[in-house]
Amino acid sequence: MRWSLSFFLFGFLAAVHALSSSGNRLLVVLEDASEKDSFSMFWSDLEARGYNLDFQSPKSDQLSLFELGDRAYDHLLVLPPRSKGLGPALSPKNIIDFMDKDGNVLLALSGKSTTPSAISSLLLELDFHLSSDRSSIAVDHFNYDTISATEKHDVLLLQRPGQLRKDTKSFFGGEGVLAFPRTEPHTLGNESPLMAPILRAPATAYSYNPKEGSFSVEDVGVTGTQMALVSAMQARNSARFTLLGSVDSLRDEWFSATVQAPGGKKTETANREFAQQLTAWTFKETGVLKVGTIEHHLAPTAEAPDVELNPAIYRIKNETVFSIEVSEYAHDRFIPFEVPSDDALQLEFTMLSPFHRLDLQPTSRTENSTIYSTQFTTPDQHGIFSFRVNYKRPFLTNLEEKHEVTVRHFAHDEYPRSWKISGGWVWIAGLWSVIGGFLAFVIMWLYSAPAPAASKTKKSQ
Amino acid sequence: MPTKRAGASPAPPSITKSLSSGPKTLPPNASVFDIAHYVWQQYLATTSERTMLLDVFMVFLVLVGAIQFAYCVLAGNFPFNAFLSGFSAAVGQFVLTASLRMQTSNGVPKEGTKVAKSKDESGQVGSVSHERAFADYIFGSLILHFFCINFIN
Fold first, then answer.
1. Domains A2-282 and A288-413 in one fold
2. Would you say domain A288-413 falls under CATH 2.60.40.1930?
3. Which has the closest alpha carbon to A66: A112, A98, A41, A42?
4. Sheet of A346-351: strands edge to edge?
5. B87 and A CB contact within 8 Å
């Protein structure tokens, strides 16, 4: 009864919910068809949000990410295979090509089996690093589930992640405890601006290889918060790749399990909400920015209230207004995009290097967009400039806008007349006194013709 | 040069005599003031009216130019184009006037000023008549004024 009710409810929600902003064809790569049922709630959640799930085995012959050169699916969900690899259709190169064509990938790992080297090399290409034996497991003796993992301590209990930094949006926050059973941890490469950890291990966690039998402290690879359990990579074309360390956390048993931390109370896990948030972000239901209209024009003045919109040419020292309309896709519709409190959307006015870098302020909101604008004076430098908005933040798709305009110098009749500048009055007076003196001199010269010459001409006549 | 020597040392009287066509000659041991006064008297006595008019105008131009330059030094050069055109008007007018003076004040006025002098008449080659020189002067000055007014905006 409860099941049918929830299905009815989800069917209703599916009608309300539209699709992901980038399509609804989802390929699920699942090697063992019998395992499909153990994720039934996860699949129903995805279908309720409008995805067309296509389950394929990696060994299938007709499996291909591309069809006639274009991608055949919008999103790819890979569950960890039992066998050695993912087959020729899902080679690292194919998956990278899939991302190059704006496909999104959610890749789950499991600590139960050794990760295939094909997946490991794919991850290395994206700068995710697994341990060298590819079969380590995250363990924490302080944040484990006392009900299910009393001996092994390999079911990690974690708080849901908040903001990554103060200037980023939180897409994975909320109340509740997450259970991560048998997690394969990974580390992130240094200095890649495209990657961001979504969920880090607690400070007391460490990783080890359970297959090596005896465990010694010297074998510890990575420990504490340098281990990431869930991470995201957003390519420069805004294609998203999410690495989930524990595929078991998506199983039905963990969607509604009751867990208990050492010395804590029994609580329900929030895995289901987290899985929804994770798939929603990966498959571009959240954190997708869209630029609407971009306008730039001269600031209207009392003399010229009507200004031309988006002119191709400006003059130096013009008061200029720039505005950009930004929307954010949230699950089923576009909403006004709000910049996080510690962050700023910035406008650059550049010719090779920025002459201005200004914070854009929200000036008005429509039903599904915010209009950011700023006013500035064009620099005292003529040339080909461009208005640039370059907003690249973790978990948000990249905004890069560039609009070229010409900035000309003053026309000959646009300078103020000389007498308007009081500092130049002395020189103006000097010039006109020279001219006046010249005229007086000419007149006096003409009236002072030498008498001897006149008398001599008379004599000669 | 000869006047200096006359003030510094006993000079031969032939120099002062040859220099003078004025009313009196200068004693050999005259003071600086006397020499200056003598030179001034000589100038007044020997210079034609037109040349003196030219000299007065040139002194006026020097004054105007000096005032403008001093103002630029004291008050700064904004607007610079006004300074350039005002100052260069004074300097250019001075140069034009100086060239007019060179062309018209060759000693006492001579005969036959209406036509260009021939070689045997004055010993000068390519010299021009006063009227022609004056017309050139007016033409050059008008061009100068046009450019300066245009440049000062």
1. no
2. yes
3. A98
4. A313-315, A399-408, A383-391, A346-351, A353-359
5. yes
Structure ipTM: 0.77
CB contact under 8 A, B87 and A427: yes
What token pair was written down for B13? 């009287």
Q: Are A49 and A14 in contact (CB under 8 A)?
A: yes
The CA distance from A172 to A281, in Å, is: 9
**Domain locations in chain A?**
2-282, 288-413, 425-460
Name the architecture of domain A2-282.
3-Layer(aba) Sandwich (3.40)
3-state secondary structure of A106: strand
Instruction: Summarize pLDDT for A108-134 with one digit per residue, the tens.
Output: 988 888 888 888 888 988 888 888 777
Residues in A closer than 8 angstroms to B149, CB to CB, are 431
How distant is the alpha carbon of residue A171 from its chain centre?
12
pLDDT tens track for B25-55? 778 888 899 999 999 999 999 888 889 999 9
- Are residues A421 and B152, on separate chains, in Cβ contact within 8 Å? no
Peptide bond into B79 cis (omega under 30): yes
Q: How many CB atoms lie within 10 A of CB B143?
A: 12
